[in-house]
Amino acid sequence: MRLSMKLKTGFAGLIMGAVLPTTVSAASFDSLESLSQARFLLMSENIAAAIHYKGVGPAEPLGIIGFDLGIELSSTEIDDEIFGEASSGEIDQSELIIPRVHVNKGLPFGLDIGAAFSAVPGTDIKALSGELRYAIVSGGVLTPAVGVRASYAVLEGVDQFDMNSSALEITASKGFAMLTPYIGTGIVKTTVTPNDIGTLTEESFDQKKMFVGATFNLGFALTVEIDKTGDYRTYSAKMGFRF
Q: Which of 2, 6, 82, 114 is the most buried (most CB within 10 A)?
């Protein structure tokens, strides 16, 4: 019940932050120029770990008529000192809570495509992302499923810098009645470019990624996942319908 309420609250925050007008100013990176190049890189790595595409699901393909529709809520640890310095103290929490809506569609030949939109309530941070996934092994009663995923994400809403991330991952999963655990690893490549800030320059970097999770089929699909990208850990929960 508590998890369900958190997901509903996060989803409401996503809709309100993305669609409805507000009289409250969103926190922004309006003092980014106060960061050194090294601290700008650390902040960028932190944001990339939070907003890059997260599949939050097992490796089995959806099939040609399959859909996966859901809402997600993730929490990524952040360096509140650096974020506070870059935002005139407006971003002072120790984690980024990120609600996300997503849709995935099965295609022929073991392919799936997916897209997601996320927005951090109370800030300018938004992200658009998508994936193409291929099942190397579809899985069965005795065999696990193995899939590879290519994904791309772009930061939106932030005027002070541009950011995009691409990732390549491999996932393995095995279903047991109502439970499907999975594990995976990959690499996330990110480029961040400051806009008209003379003291900072573009950075490009790679981050190793590892994740483990499980999907529970309870009439609806509930998935929980722990992800570590670079030095930063993310906890995610997704609730929706997979059919």
A: 114
pLDDT tens profile 55-67: 999 999 999 999 9
Tokens of 81: 């000192």
Q: pLDDT tens for residues 96-131?
A: 999 999 999 999 999 999 999 999 999 999 999 999
Smallest Cα–Cα separation from 69: which of 11, 127, 27, 138?
11
Structure tokens at 124: 């300018």
* DSSP conformation letters of 91-126: ---SEEEEEEEEEEEE-STTEEEEEEEEE-TTBS-E
Quick one: residue 63, left, alpha or beta (phi over 0 = left, psi -120 to 50 = alpha)? left
- CB of 74 closer than 8 Å to CB of 125: no
Structural domain range at position 215 = 2-242
Q: What pairing do the DSSP bridges indicate for beta strands 67-77 and 161-173?
A: unpaired
pTM reported for the whole predicted model: 0.88
Question: How many distinct structural domains can be found in the chain?
Answer: 1
User: In CATH, what number is assigned to the domain containing residue 169?
Assistant: 2.40.128
